[in-house]
Specification:
The chain is an alpha+beta fold and 185 residues long. It has 6 helices and 8 strands.
Length: 185
């Protein structure tokens, strides 16, 4: 566990994250209800159908930030290593060179979600979640999608060393997202 002020961050594997699904769901629902996302109950339900499937992957890991005094969830992050059959690279609007898109189940960690409840933003919680989640993953790089309308998230990712490598619609009906890559080695 990592301490961040009045927040405790716990690293979890898939079974532990699945057990704590309600906490992840609460953070997700609160964080993504705001613009530019404006996700409602149906969006949250769909996200957590994916979460349950993702949490069963052997390389899944998650970080949950909770208030130290009462255990109330205030932030979360999760992802998994991309396998050789990933379709992530296929979603980009422009073709990606074969060397960049090559995946082997260890090369790239896909950061699926990172969110902090509005009242806890600007206090280093996201940075702590990110660092905890990626500590010891052994991947060469991290890949994520970010909504370009989320200026704060985009700025944080750039400050942490990510660079934009393209644009994609991560799911049917989604807004165009920036695809960002962080080289770890």
């Amino acid at each position: 566990m990592t301490q961040q002020g009045a927040v405790r961050v716990e690293l979890m594997d898939g079974p532990a994250a699945a057990h704590a699904e309600d906490s992840f769901r609460r953070v997700y629902a609160e964080a993504f209800a705001e613009p530019p996302y404006q996700e409602g109950p149906d969006d949250v339900a769909e996200a957590f159908r994916r979460f349950r499937s993702q949490a069963r992957k052997g390389t899944f890991r998650a970080a949950l930030a909770v208030r130290s005094e009462d255990g109330e969830p205030v932030g979360m992050a999760y992802g998994f290593a991309l396998g050789p059959d990933t379709r992530w690279w296929d979603q980009l609007t422009e073709p990606v060179p074969e060397e960049r898109r090559r995946e082997d189940g260890r090369r790239t960690f896909g950061l699926m979600e990172l969110a902090v409840c509005p009242a806890w933003r600007g206090q280093g919680v996201a940075r702590c979640l990110h660092a905890t989640l990626l500590d010891g993953i052994g991947a060469e790089r991290v890949l994520l999608n970010v909504h370009p309308g989320s200026a704060a998230a985009s700025a944080a990712y750039r400050a942490w060393g990510y660079r934009k490598v393209g644009e994609a619609r991560p799911w049917r009906g989604a807004d165009l997202h920036d695809v960002m890559l962080l080289e770890l080695r």
